């Protein structure tokens, strides 16, 4: 590998920066939009499901908006794992956590800034309806950006544990299959890591932080994992698309060298 090149002409460095930037950005956005709860059934024009798990009834696919992006984050993890190995994933995971915590610190400071009087109550076009008033902009700002401490802690703990498990399972499968069955190591590691992520965040945020019944936490976790499992399988072809684009960008020799180094970490 020609490491003497400037960073902006070194394809391996550029690839790591592009993948890392996309990885961290997706993780940060997933955290920020996670405050919104949406109905997956309504998104597809279906009636809400009414499932019962562990004696908890009325369960449906009411998910945080962040679940749209978290499967993409874990797919990015597998692609980065393929070419930059355990160390690359660990470094980007810690960078993502630091950036997310930094963002929430800035939100905390922003929330406690004294609001301007005219900004407090605004009117304008909302959902196509003109002169629709928002009675308290400062309260709305706090509600959107002021996620609870336990939710932030639960999300970060789940993210880091999920990343560690993803890397371990990915390389465990890779050592036994070699370069073959990329879909198996990518999807298999994602399914295991998403299982950890689905339950840890709820246990920390709501069982420990909000005293929810454990059976309710487990029931909601199962519903979330159903969605994440389906998405992990559905998005598997994107790994092959990403792999093909990277191989073309790096060239066969450099791509092979990076994958060999990643496998031996």
Task: Please characterize this protein's 3D structure.
By secondary structure, the chain is mainly alpha-helical. It has one domain. The protein has ten helices and six strands, in the order H-E-H-E-E-E-H-H-E-E-H-H-H-H-H-H. The strands form three sheets. A two-stranded antiparallel sheet has the order 1-4. A hairpin with a 2-residue loop joins strand 5 (122-126) and strand 6 (129-134). The radius of gyration is 21 Å and the shape is globular.
Q: What are the secondary-structure elements, in order, as H or E? A: HEHEEEHHEEHHHHHH
**Unreliable residue runs:** none
Beta-strand content: 5-15%
How would a textbook summarize the main sheet?
2 strands, antiparallel
Average pLDDT, all residues: 84
The number of distinct helices, counting runs of at least 4 residues, comes to 10
Multimeric state: single chain
The strand order across the widest sheet is 1-4
Q: In the residues, how many domains can be counted?
A: 1
Tell the overall outline: globular
Structural class by helix and strand composition:
mainly alpha
Distance between the termini: 17 Å
Number of strands: 6
Helical content band: over 70%
Q: Radius of gyration over alpha carbons?
A: 21 Å
């Amino acid at each position: 590998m020609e490491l003497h090149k400037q960073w902006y002409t070194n394809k391996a460095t550029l690839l790591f920066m592009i993948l890392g930037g996309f990885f961290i950005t997706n993780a940060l956005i997933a955290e920020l939009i996670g405050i919104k709860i949406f109905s997956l059934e309504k998104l597809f024009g279906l009636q809400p499901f009414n499932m019962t798990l562990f004696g908890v009834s009325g369960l449906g696919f009411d998910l945080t908006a962040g679940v749209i992006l978290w499967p993409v984050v874990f797919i990015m993890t597998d692609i980065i794992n393929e070419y930059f190995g355990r160390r690359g994933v660990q470094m980007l995971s810690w960078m993502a956590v630091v950036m997310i915590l930094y963002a929430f610190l800035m939100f905390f400071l922003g929330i406690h800034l004294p609001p301007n009087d005219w900004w407090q109550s605004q009117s304008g076009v909302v959902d196509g309806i003109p002169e629709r008033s928002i009675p308290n902009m400062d309260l709305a700002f706090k509600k959107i950006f002021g996620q609870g401490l336990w939710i932030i802690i639960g999300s970060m703990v789940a993210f880091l544990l999920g990343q560690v498990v993803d890397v371990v399972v990915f390389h465990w499968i890779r050592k036994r299959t070699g370069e073959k069955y990329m879909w198996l190591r990518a999807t298999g590691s994602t399914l295991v890591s998403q299982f950890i992520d689905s339950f840890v965040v709820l246990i920390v945020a709501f069982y420990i932080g909000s005293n929810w019944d454990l059976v309710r936490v487990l029931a909601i976790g199962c519903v979330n994992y159903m969605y994440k499992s389906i998405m992990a399988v559905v998005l598997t072809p994107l790994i092959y698309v990403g792999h093909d684009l990277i191989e073309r960008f790096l060239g066969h020799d450099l791509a092979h060298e990076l994958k060999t180094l990643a496998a031996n970490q």
